[in-house]
Amino acid sequence: MRDRYADFQAKKAGVCIIGMGTVPEAAAFRDRLEIPFPMLVDPKQVTYRTLRMGQARATSLTNPEMLISGAKSLIKGRGISRPRQDPFQLGGAAVVRVGGEISYTHRAESFSDIASSHELLAAL
Fold first, then answer.
1. Which end of the chain offers a freer environment for a tag, N or C, measured as fewer CB atoms within 10 Å?
2. Structurally, how many domains does the chain consist of?
3. CATH number of 31's domain
4. In angstroms, rounded to a whole number, what is the distance separating the alpha carbons of residues 117 and 87?
């Protein structure tokens, strides 16, 4: 999303990331990855429950897909950090219209299941 942020702005769409961490953790993440849009924190996972984001099974943490994803992250220099919040919480993405109508939701089925910028732009 960072690399396509101008495309979202051209469609007059706001972009934000919601995470479970603390404000300092979110700020450090934003700065490290040079994210140009706001990051919000939801340590009580209210947003995740509202959007019905799923939970991974314990075996998901050691499946080959997860291990490969972690290895790729290390190779790219991003590192892997110890989870400080709910390590089983899966993420997702949503397009929320003015007034609060949710017109598109992507609920991750695994940790590496991330909605593409193309999907989100099309949903706008």
1. C
2. 1
3. 3.40.30
4. 25
Per-residue pLDDT of the chain (124 residues), as tens digits, is: 889 999 999 999 999 999 888 899 899 989 999 999 999 999 999 999 999 999 987 655 555 665 676 667 667 766 555 556 788 889 899 999 899 899 999 999 888 888 999 999 999 9
Residue 106 structural domain: 2-123
Distance CA 110, CA 68 (A): 13
Q: Where are the beta strands (DSSP E) in 3-73?
A: 17-19, 39-41
CB atoms within 10 A of CB 1: 19
Distance, in Å, from the CA atom of 6 to the CA atom of 121, rounded to the nearest integer, reads 11
Distance from C-alpha of 87 to C-alpha of 28, rounded to nearest angstrom: 19
Please choose, from the candidates 53, 118, 57, the residue with its C-alpha nearest in 3D space to the C-alpha of residue 92. Answer: 53
